[in-house]
Amino acid sequence: MSAPIVSFLDGAVAPLRFFAEPGKRIHVLYLAAALLISLSIYLFRHRDRDSSGGSFAGALRFLFPRRLWRHRSSRLDLKLLVVNAWVRLLLLLPVSLPAMAVILSVHRGLRMAFGDPVVSAASPLVVALLYTAALFVVDDLSRYLLHRLLHRVPALWELHKVHHSAEVLTPLTLYRVHPLESLLYGLRGALAVGATTGVFVYLFGPAIDQVTILGINGLGFVFSLLGSNLRHSHVWISYGRIAERIFISPAQHQVHHSAEAAHADRNFGTALAVWDWLGGSLAIAGKHEERPRHFGLAPSEQNHGAGLLSAYVGPMVAAFRRLLPWRRAAAAVAGGLILAWASIAVAQSAPASRPASRPASAPASQPAASKPAASKTSQAVAPVFFDPDSGSVAAEGSAANNKNKTGAKGSAAKA
């Protein structure tokens, strides 16, 4: 079978895999957990009403309201989920930045700046816990920073409008993104995971591991399981004034999507609210009666229609117009990014420094970024593309993704 046909078939079944891969937010386990949480909310709100108010039919209407799933906005969510799978496979993957390239570049840079490290003798369990937490926190911070830029930089905001044009919210709204935004999030993920892993490889050697559940980062798994799909939904769940300064609740993200002017540019965070708290963009969700009544963009803000082609072309045209007054600066930035990407790619393919460069008295266990070390490091982070907004932090770019294949050791594997 020819390669184009195989690629076409892979793209056709890719959206279906999203429901079976733990690294995807809409995995059936996470959706089932969201349904159970939603049903519990429904039963709690109807606990003092008569039996008809809390009926099975009423529960179904609450969980699957027709006004949401039959809305034209939901139909565009589904179209973008399906077609973006092909776009990502055929167009974005060939130009995505492998996390492995970042790892090797960071590791080489640290060795050049500080020399060969004395590898820490910390317990594998302690290293695994630190690595897991570091991946989660750095990944979440990088998401916050990029998300904020998508709102503040005019050209990027034109691309991000595809996501914010959703007039109703469903779990599929997560994948309502422009392909160029997906590319940006992929680069962000590779840089965040690659830089974190490069530092840990430098400090603790290539045999690092993370705490995983079903093959993904343990903290990311917990985030996805505990209602992450309710962020894009009609179910209002607030954590309260104290907890919402630490964690982003589903209600807070719904506030972020609100069409009300008072909610503009609030709650950029994905899992942690501390970034918004420190950055002055935090909004506490409040009570159920205070929830946003409308989502989407004002007519003057819209740059595309309800069709799929319009959602692809309109934002690019609008972004290009935004860049026209700054075309020289934009060209310089684009050239710098291309140069950086090419430099990392060259660094990845360049031969590693020779062990002979180490002092003769150096311990045998001391890493020198030789080819064997790089080979082990490649087992830690696979060169893959990252989800635009996956809650399974670093799952697709870390040891978790290759754990079952490589037989990674360490107490973290027992999580």
List the topology elements:
Blueprint: H1 3-17, H2 28-45, H3 56-63, H4 66-69, H5 72-92, H6 99-114, H7 124-152, H8 154-164, H9 179-204, E1 212-213, E2 216-217, H10 218-225, H11 250-256, H12 274-279, H13 308-323, H14 327-349, H15 371-380, H16 399-406
Antiparallel strand pairs: 1-2
Helix pairs in contact: 1-5, 6-9, 6-14, 7-8, 7-9, 8-13
In words, what does this structure look like?
With 415 residues, the protein is an all-alpha fold. Helix content is 54%, strand content 1%. It has 16 helices and two strands. Helix 6 (99-114) packs across helix 14 (327-349), helix 7 (124-152) packs across helix 8 and helix 8 (154-164) runs antiparallel to helix 13 (308-323).
